[in-house]
Amino acid sequence: MSVEPTVHTPSRAVRRPRGRVFLLTERCKGCRFCVEFCPRHVLAMSDRFNSKGYHVPAVIAEELCTDCKMCELLCPEFAIYVVRLEEER
Ligand code: SF4
Ligand code: SF4
């Protein structure tokens, strides 16, 4: 009785989307929504203030951004937006 060799088909790598995050700090009012609700912890409150005296966030781990746009949707001041990056080849 012959035994068929097991064929291992290579799994296709799953690419996740990536985004570039832009903060318009002069529009920001420091509500922290973008920091609290980013599922990937891309943002954190910085130690900086804008010219109106609002404590502003900063991008601390952009490489983790998946372009989900949660921050963009939640920001009441339209002070943050995300642009999808082209996939690396
Ligand atoms: S797009 Fe999504 S993952 Fe990227 S910074 Fe905004 S909330 Fe976080
Ligand atoms: S959600 Fe908008 S207004 Fe609130 S901290 Fe983030 S960028 Fe600033």
Automatic annotation (TrEMBL):
Residues 19-48, 56-85 form the 4Fe-4S ferredoxin-type domain. The keyword Nucleotide-binding does not apply. One of its GO terms (molecular function) is metal ion binding. Keywords: Iron, Iron-sulfur, Metal-binding. The lineage of its organism: Bacteria, Pseudomonadati, Acidobacteriota, environmental samples. It comes from the Bacteria. PANTHER family: FERREDOXIN SUBUNIT OF PYRUVATE:FLAVODOXIN OXIDOREDUCTASE-RELATED, IRON-SULFUR-BINDING PROTEIN. This is 2-oxoglutarate ferredoxin oxidoreductase subunit delta.
